[in-house]
């Protein structure tokens, strides 16, 4: 790992003087049952080289045949991104030598992509950016190499490599944005939000399990910088961006780094850079100026794709409600402001709230629990909300118990803690721990009288008219009843006794 | 001259063939001749003529998303010059990025 | 019509062998053994075969005999031996493509054509020699040494399917499979006095055919008679879902057409551009006679100009190297085949480069570099892109011609068989051998070569090429069969009887190669 480039300009300073322009290329592994050009399975985690055949191994004499489902999924993605679907297009060979591509060419698409010219809206801090989609095309994935002998398991310093072709030939969709200017200081978060939005869109279309950690969603980020008002600068491409957080960090780092280069009066080199998770830095890789000539030509072993318009319309009609539309609908149903909705989105809580509402809670209650107590618990344990051991149905039940007065807020929190600790569902916990609110006045009056007797001076104040002092006595009663009392009722009873 | 010896050397590198100097000398002359000959296609006026696709033009040849039997790993690795841990062993790959 | 059946099994046609086996007059094992004996006797001189599958062939023959005895239904060619060009994958035999880079490579799968042959009960005797990766017109580009023309062992048997043509002409097999990309079935057939057919592109599956030029490669039959070629054509043809470019339509009725053998009223077009002074005088003379013969049989002959045919050679030598430069990239020593220079310090790139430098012969290297050039950014439009456009124009020339005539004819190749070594390091001279055959590869239509006599100056065979529209393969067989029947009457038997190259072996006088009249 080489040291970072000479100096970085602090981000706020950098964006005060320079304008960033973004571009993102995202690769999505489709969740089809079989590979793009052969019938080998696409399941993750199979023993090495056990899901291969002459076609995906590129053995002499083998020929590709296109997977109809992969074409359909790609059209689905294109339509969801508001693209035009080509009426006629071809696959092309992208020629380069590398041990993980068995034919030393990749079947991809070049100047005739299946989908073009779409867009997707990304909202960040109340501002909406329309990210243009240049193209969506289909290609085959490569095999995977293990690099042996080097210190870090990476290519640098390795003695040799071991290649597994199970992944070779899995259908890959590439989504390329148009350049995205005008994000200013929000560039890093816009980039992240775009990838998040795209991921959620793909998930709703059920075309991929889009797990960045498993590699079914991969991102390359392009960043360029130019002085305010000037023409766009030279862009760099950053690879190895393996999480949403890395997307944001990579853009941020590039902005800071390129600002320093420009400040020093030097040129930004057009190149491919590598992002490092640990340091958040990017380092120089292959220079894009000696850009590889892939010698693209139309794939002669495949015939053109000409999706009939009826088929495209069928696919369009079968698109599910897309995340943006769903969010708008829920926001309206739940009567929330944009800010409130954004908070929910940022916390990853929309689906959870929706499910909780579906299970009977009010939207307000559902939000309160997920964004309040549960978010706090999730943060404490470093988990995602979805990883908490409580279901929306259970949250709804707790909410219902509070609404009927069986629990108060404090007790409800105890119940939730208990559910999270694995003690069972809410009703079981309430029963087992005897946490129900005491609603029997007689029992309460005992505690009330005891508190009054123990605090004669406070009681005197209240008799004298200083009703505000009732709080202290309420506290005593709550303590005595282990919180299992309705504070308001207790207050009423005390005042009743002392009037 | 249609192509120089240096250009031929470049083509050899691009196509991963470690040609000897003698081969480069020999091929440069021959390729020069051949390229001059094939360049004749440029004489033909072909404005707006579409490139040839297939003799019997068809579109939309697909297969269904259904599994087919695979090779066993032993079959896949049978011809491998070197194999280890069920994988193809290849010499060290120079860093790409 | 049918000649008296030869006494020697190896001189019988495929049709005759099939009938005899089906009738129980001779066993498939006997037939196979006779051909294996013949191979042992003459192949040291002819060198048609790279691999002879002795035991495998006898086992397959035995299986045919067993099934026939059990009354099971068998294919039309059951028990007939065949020589398979070593470009087709076979799971039980090596597949070298005539290259060192695949020496001893055993594929884990059969080509579709291989599978169909086996399913038909055809006995695959072995794999035949070829120009390396199908690039060449003489088999001199084979890494394993050239094959020799049975007419005269110092001459080329044609290429790239030279081993297949030599095997059939030497009576080592009645049938052979070749592949035609620029003429590689028809040209060897012509120079060896055989019938060789290039079906419509896509007529039979390329799955398992190691690719040279994907948009041109076409498997097809070589045989000593038109009927035999038709029978083999039918056996291997038909749609294959594993090949996206294979034709999804019934196989044209080629066998029926071969039996029809009638050209009365047929309109025959002589390609102007190919009947000028471009051919050897004896070739031109025999061609002219063949055209006159067709007229005498009732055909109407016209002159047809196909102006873009003169660009066919440069178009072919841009498109085929481009596709092959990509198709052959996979041969890098990483997954199978030869690996050179892996001393555990060199990089993958270095090992790939050493492997390919050592594993490929000069013609392959030339074409890879030519193709890399033609596809390079900055050159694509002027070379590959332009060539594909001119290819469309050539195809349109055919379309226009077939509005006027039913078939087009030309000599198959400008000269008769030339001496081994004469053009070996002169690529441009070598390329000229395909001058007349290339247009049909570019347009993908059907084209057959049938013998039409011996050139007077050297006594070597001349081929007549008959071209028909795409999907009209049967039409070529109809005309070829008519020509064959008429000529054999004139010649009083098949042309091949005049082949003296193996006379010594034939007469059992040892292995001294005979000399033809050259």
Give the tags.
heterotrimer, A: 499 residues, alpha+beta, nine-stranded mixed beta sheet, three-stranded antiparallel beta sheet, 16 helices, elongated, disordered N terminus, B: 97 residues, two-stranded antiparallel ribbon, 3 helices, flat
Question: Please, could you describe this protein's structure?
Answer:
The complex is a heterotrimer of chains A (499), B (97) and C (518). Chain A has 499 residues and is of the alpha+beta class. Helices cover 38% and strands 19% of the residues of chain A. Chain A contains 16 helices and 15 strands. In chain A, the strands form 3 sheets. Chain A has a 9-stranded mixed β-sheet with strand order 3-6-7-10-1-11-12-13-14. In chain A, helix 8 (350-358) crosses helix 9 (363-380), helix 10 runs antiparallel to helix 11 and helix 13 (441-454) packs across helix 15. Chain B is flat, with a radius of gyration of 22 Å. Chain B starts with a helix and ends in a 6-residue tail after the last strand. With 518 residues, chain C is of the alpha/beta class. Chain C has 17 helices and 11 strands. The chains are: A alpha+beta (499), B alpha+beta (97), C alpha/beta (518). Chains in contact: A-B, A-C, B-C. Strand 9 of chain A pairs antiparallel with strand 3 (87-91) of chain B.
Report on the biggest sheet of chain B. Answer: 2 strands, antiparallel
Q: Any idea what the shape of chain B is?
A: flat
Rg estimate of chain C, integer Å: 22 Å
Q: What is the count of DSSP helices of chain B, taking H or I runs of 4+ residues?
A: 3
Largest sheet of chain C at a glance? 11 strands, mixed
Strand content of chain B: 5-15%
CA-CA gap between termini of chain B: 37 Å
Oligomeric state of the chains present here: heterotrimer
Average residue-wise pLDDT of chain B: 93
**Overall pLDDT level of chain C:** 94
The stretches of 5 or more residues of chain C where confidence is low (pLDDT under 50) are: 509-518
Tell me the strand order in the biggest sheet of chain B.
2-3
Distance between the termini of chain C: 33 Å
Q: How much of the sequence of chain C is in beta strands?
A: 5-15%
> Going across the major beta sheet of chain C, what is the strand order?
1-3-2-4-6-5-10-11-9-7-8
How are helices and strands ordered from N to C of chain C?
HHEHEHEHEHEEHHEHEHHHHEHHEEHH
User: Which two chains touch over the largest interface?
Assistant: B-C, 54 and 73 residues
